[in-house]
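Protein Record: Sequence and Backbone Structure Tokens
======================================================
Scope: a single protein chain, as residues and as a discrete description of its fold.
Tokens: labelled as protein backbone structure tokens, with as many entries as the chain has residues.
Position: the record begins directly beneath this header, with no further notes in between.
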Amino acid sequence: MERMRAAVLIEPRRFEIREVPVPAIGPRDALVRVSRTGICGTDIHIWNGHYAADRLPLVPGHEFCGTVAAVGDAVRHLAPGTRCVADINIGCGTCFWCRRNEILNCPEMAQVGIGRDGAFAEYVALPARLVISLPDTLPDAVAALTEPVACVVRAADKAGIRPGQSVVVLGAGPIGNLHVQMLRLAGAAPILVADLSEDRCRMALEAGADAAISDPAALAAEVGRLTGGRGADVVIESVGSERLYAQAFDLIRKGGHVAFFGLTGPEASVPVGILRTILEETSLKGSVAGMGEDMHTALTLLAHGRFRTEAFTRAEFPLEAITQAFETLASRPEDLKTQIRIGRDPAVA
């Protein structure tokens, strides 16, 4: 049996680089040779033992690109040698939720790198229908951003963002920065970002935010100033803090919307004023993962240069240094994304 290198998370905060079997594929599957994989906020939760701890040992990693190495006998639309990314959300494909592109609700749903072994490895296997070919001109480092960009594409759609709407993004980390860029593409105005880090506030302004604030005590007043005292049309919580979720409801206008995005622990909750919600017609909706057409939209936006990606692509570590990559994330706030280099990038035309 062929073997490959993989970073196996044995227990929280402990990776081992192991030689493991290359995943087997079925007749409708594809085997992808991974080029590089980004470290996601979800991976950090898994690394710290806050998420999916019951699934260890596990090979995490889901923000990946690579090249098709092999396909099953029943696959006709995909050929070995095709550069690709992939939708990581594996549903049954036929149930009520899959038909509506709400795959996370599918009873059989599994996610690559979260519910099954993922892409901090030389190879990853998944259904061939989820593999998406890449334009020849798109570098691997940028292509590996397709999945996180798909997440903000879906979040903007679920929040019903329309041109001229005022939006507050709570959190200016990697995904918060992508939210800002997506909101600007959708025509939101003004866009206000809040984060404790002055450096990341500055980067959010460079990404297209109209204002950024690092002083929590001044946030409500600044939102009021930018919205004529009404409050924001939409607030996106992108951190995963119960305190920020509660604060979000105080920042929206009457008839406003809170977008739940940042992951929390399973027991986290936030009080919602029922009467106020009814009388003011406020709303909330959750969104976390891009899937289906979201991935294709994200890839189109990246291929046409609609996202600024330099801060997401300059930091990379080899697979053997994955522990160092995770341990130094907090000390490198200027690097909005760290990618693990696994295979050699093919030549890009």
Observations:
- DSSP finds twelve helices and 17 strands in the chain.
